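Work Package 4 report. The design task specified in the project plan requires that, given a folded chain encoded as C-alpha cells, an amino acid be chosen for each position. We show below one input record used in the internal validation round.
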C-alpha cells in the first residue's frame, strides 16, 4: 500500500495499491490553488 502526501501541508491525499510500501509527494487541491 502506497501513500500520496501533500508536500506543502503534509496531509494524506490518497492511497494506492503497490507491492512496496512507498510515499509519494504531490499537492492536494487546497495547496494547489495558491
Amino acid at each position: 500500500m502506497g501513500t500520496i502526501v501533500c508536500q506543502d501541508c503534509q496531509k494524506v491525499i490518497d492511497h494506492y495499491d503497490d507491492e512496496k510500501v512507498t510515499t509519494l509527494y504531490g499537492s492536494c487541491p487546497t495547496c494547489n490553488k495558491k
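The chain has a mean pLDDT of 92. Validation will be extended to a larger panel in the next phase.
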